[in-house]
Amino acid sequence: MNKNAFVLTDENYYSREADIHYMSCSQYQSFEKCEAAAIAKLRGLWQPEETSDALFQGQYFHSYFESPQAFQVFCDENFNRIFKTKTTKAKGTEIVGKYAPFERLDEMIEAVENDRFISRILDWQGENELPMTGIVGGVPWRMKMDKYCPGTRRIIDYKTSANLHELYYNFRTRERQTFIEEFGYMMRAAVYGEIERQNRQEATFPSFLIIGVSKQSPPDKEVILLDDDTRWEYELEVVKSKIPHIQRLKEGAENPKRCGMCEYCRATKEIRKIKAYTDLMPEFWNDPDNIEVDDYEGTSVFDTLKPRG
User: In 3D, which of 128, 14, 143 has the Cα closest to residue 71?
Assistant: First the structure.
């Protein structure tokens, strides 16, 4: 099979085949979280039970700012998850409101649109949900920018968060960090910036802005600039250093490690030994004696695709 025969389109952008042929920031982060779950998903052996509430709500928020048409389609396709209905003999079935999370999201949307500073940013000339592809670490990547302003080379990303000022504990650094660090947005900005730079054939990075809004009542909101050439170069070097290992996992040259804690690992878990209480401590998670892998006997994720033609 020709690995380069795949043509990326709007229709197949989010397909398993696209994930096999192209790396993305979300896929990269899934490998960081659990290699075994990422490979099982690529092979078509496992899917999360359903889109998480946080992810689904983020899609609702994003579709609103994509276009009125995109928002209407999203609401129509997910009607039962968004709207509350009541059926009577007199009126039949009618909408009586939205479920609480979506009423809160509408409040968040209103908070963003009513902010004079943010509304000016939303009015910048640009294109919503613009895809681009590039090469990072020697492999093809794909990305979709929430909004791209080509005249000023600005990338805008919409982010929803429980609390924009919440701090998260990092077990590796043993320090608390912001949601920007917790969810890898500096890595994402660096990859997006590199791909944009390649497509524009520019020596410099573009600018990357996050429009963040919290799920609090009333919602908090911020416009956050992630521009930092030195940090972006560092993030790209980290990504490039890990890509060869990820590619070997995709090609079946190495077996993926199980994190032992995610949805996939819990669903497929088989007890193989008695653990010491210390094995539950973060500093021992990567102990060789505690690492388990899924064995695919050298078969590639490309082998799981149906032949073309």
Answer: 128
